[in-house]
Each structure stands twice: as structure tokens, then as C-alpha cells.
Amino acid sequence: MRESDKQMLADHYLDFYQMAYSVLHNKEDVEDVVQESLAVTMAHTWVKNPYNYCVKVLRHNCYKMLKKSDYVLVEHLPDMPVIEEGVDEKRLQTIWRLKNQLPERISKLFDLYYVKGYTHEEISEMTGTSLPMLKKLFRKGHNRLRKQLQEIENKEKD
């Protein structure tokens, strides 16, 4: 790798640090991940765009760190969200129960979006799932919830 590329990566250290911190929220782990990512990037002499390659390596390393047993991608969430006045409590409880019956991956994505308030783009970056695949998973989950909710409501009418 050229010296100018190494200097450019060093100049962007703060950018890499901020990217990793937005995912890991732990100073020591962020420093480790950034250093490892820079070392891996600098070790490859064939990289055409070192900045983009380093970002990809950084994202991968953050994801690996999140998968470690001492990290949990989603913090413990309440059994039920706070119910605002005027909301059909019974229907909301049914939706929440059905959401918890979805495949774990989709349920966690819903928690990140609806409970934690992350955007699709942020969730995509945190989980390493492409945006189109993420949106497909959301559609799949929504369709399944809608179908199950309609079945339950139709049974209650009869």
C-alpha cells in the first residue's frame, strides 16, 4: 500500500472511530476494532480504494464483536410497550404476542425499528444485512402479522 493511502487512512481515524462507536458504544472495543480494521486494510497491497475497503472491514469487525456472547444486539426490551391513551389495548397486546411468535431475526428487527427507533439504514449497517434484504424481511413480517391478526379478529366475530 502506498504511503499516501496509509496517511489518508490515518487522517480518517476519527471517522472510523465514530462509525464503530455508533454500533458498539464501548470505547475500548471500538479502539480495538478500528485498529484491527486499519491493520487489515494496510496489509492488503491490492486494494483500489482503501477508505471503502476499511469501512467494509470495520463493519464486519463490529458485527463480529456484536455476535460475541458478551454482546447483545438488542438490549432487554419490556414485555409490552407503554400503551398510550386511546389505543385499543387488547389489539396491541395481540399484535405484540404475534410479533413475539415471528422468527427471532424478524422479531428483533421489529424491536430495533418500532421500539428502539432505529432507521432501516441504521439497522442494515448494525446487522450487516443489505437494505433490500432488510426491507424484504420487514414485508415478510408485516404480511405474516397482518394475516394472523385478521384470522384472530375473524374468529372473534364468529
Question: Could you walk me through the main structural features you see in this protein, from its secondary elements to its overall organization?
Answer:
- With 158 residues, the chain is mainly alpha-helical.
- It has two domains: 3-67; 89-157, Orthogonal Bundle (Arc Repressor Mutant, subunit A), CATH 1.10.10.10.
- Helix content is 73%, strand content 0%.
- The chain contains eight helices and no strands.
- It has helices spanning 3-11, 13-24, 27-43, 50-67, 89-101, 104-115, 120-127, 131-157.
- The longest helix has 27 residues, at 131-157.
- It is elongated, with a radius of gyration of 21 Å.
- The N and C termini lie far apart (71 Å).
- Mean pLDDT is 81; it is low at 72-80.
Keywords:
single chain; 158 residues; mainly alpha; 2 domains
